[in-house]
Amino acid sequence: MSSIAQTIAILNFFLLLSGGIGRQQVYRNDEFGIPVPIPEGAQLCSIPEDEHDHGPFFVLGNAEPAACNDKPDGRYIAVFAGYNAVDDTKRLSDFLRWECVEIGGGHCSAAPDGLRIAGMKTMAGRVNRNDGWMEVCVVTQAGKADPNFDASVPSINYDLRLHTTGSHVDEDLRTFRSVLKTVELSPPAWNTPAEH
Question: Can you give the pLDDT at residue 71?
């Protein structure tokens, strides 16, 4: 056996032992309690070293690795978590409205049916942008309330977003639904948030 073939055989053996073959990879964020399997047909982008990890970013379709650098210009699914620390987004309905206007670039309209995370109170909306892109977002909140902010609301806001076009919406919604079905949002016990 040639040395290249031996090297490949050894690497495959270690991947098999470590569970890397035949098992779906899972993105994890312990700070915000986000484990989510990387969906089929999506590529997980790495977080730049100079940015704080707020959740996974998946590019969709036949994207090359460089697509991770061009996030706004392609189809993607993003899961973003942040501390619930401003009045504009402290209630779930306000959070959805803010996400549609500030991130999606328009007012919320009805989202496709059935977009939710099991066991969590969620709201969903859609923005059909003038440039042909569509934003579909599902928002939820979790975590022990921060008594220093508002003891009546959860401490973490989660935005799960699909950025797609009308010609890809059916295909991309299948992937987005699989993320909603498999994501688990369970933040650890409250700690004072670090400055992010």
Answer: 60
